[in-house]
Amino acid sequence: MNFEEYFKEELIFLLDTQSKKEAFEQIANGLYEHGFVKETYLQAVSEREEVYPTGLLAAEGGIAIPHTDHIHVNKSVISLAILKEPITFLQMGTDNMKVDVNIIFMLAIKKPESQLRVLQMVTEIIQDQEILRKLRLSSSKQHAFSIIKQFCSEITI
Questions:
Q1: CA 134 to CA 127: how far, in whole Å?
Q2: CB burial string 3-41: b at 16+ within 10 A, e below
Q3: Do residues 62 and 100 lie in contact, with contact meaning Cβ atoms separated by under 8 Å?
Q4: For residue 135, what are the contacts with CB-CB under 8 A and spacing of at least 6?
Q5: What is the pTM assigned to this prediction?
Q6: What is the pLDDT of residues 62-89, one digit of tens each?
Q7: Are strands 61-64 and 55-58 parallel, antiparallel or unpaired?
Q8: SS3 state at 85
Q9: Angle, nearest 10°, between helix axes 129-136 and 115-126?
Q10: Which residue ranges in the chain fall short of pLDDT 50?
Q11: Cα–Cα dist 120/15, whole Å
Q12: What local confidence, expressed as pLDDT, does residue 68 receive?
């Protein structure tokens, strides 16, 4: 599986937003404008996040991996958002533990059977403290994309 086919420079966002709702809107609107998701995606991903939180505590800070059902997706892609200031998410598998997230990997997966492999790809990234640190310090979407591209060329899933 080729990481690069899932990451697009135009779907990397450096966000200065105050809420999860605003972050989701900006990311989902970008996905929609580029034709990767349907108009229903934003509402679906927001509703799913309320029921199944996706915040994770990584060594380098909080990560979130919001996603929703394939029926809201036109073509598979992973959007990356680097937040200027952390946003509070609920931790995955809990209903009350909070995580301050500053990197969001928003997944749009068209084929349900490929979801596990895509999650494995994202897991590879979030387990690498140095990559997360470099992403958090990215000054441009081009720089963040080059970090992901380099990382993708070095691993195989």
A1: 13
A2: beebbbeebbbebebeebeebbeebbebbbeeebbeeeb
A3: yes
A4: 80, 82, 103, 144, 147, 148
A5: 0.94
A6: 999 999 999 999 999 999 999 999 999 9
A7: antiparallel
A8: strand
A9: 80
A10: none
A11: 25
A12: 94
21 vs 2, 25, 89, 136, CA distance in Å?
31, 6, 11, 20
Tell me how far CA of residue 45 lies from CA of 49, 67, 84, 110, 132, in angstroms.
Answer: 6, 6, 22, 14, 24
Q: Which residue has the tokens 């533990």?
A: 97
Structural domain boundaries in the chain: 3-154
If you search the block for the tokens 């997966």, which residue do you land on?
109
d(CA 146, CA 7): 11
CATH number for 3-154 (one of 3.30.70.360, 3.40.50.620, 3.40.930.10, 1.10.460.10): it is 3.40.930.10
User: Which neighbouring-strand residues pair with 73?
Assistant: 37
**Which structure tokens are listed for 44?**
């679906």
The DSSP output letter for 5 is G
Q: What is the pLDDT of residue 112?
A: 87
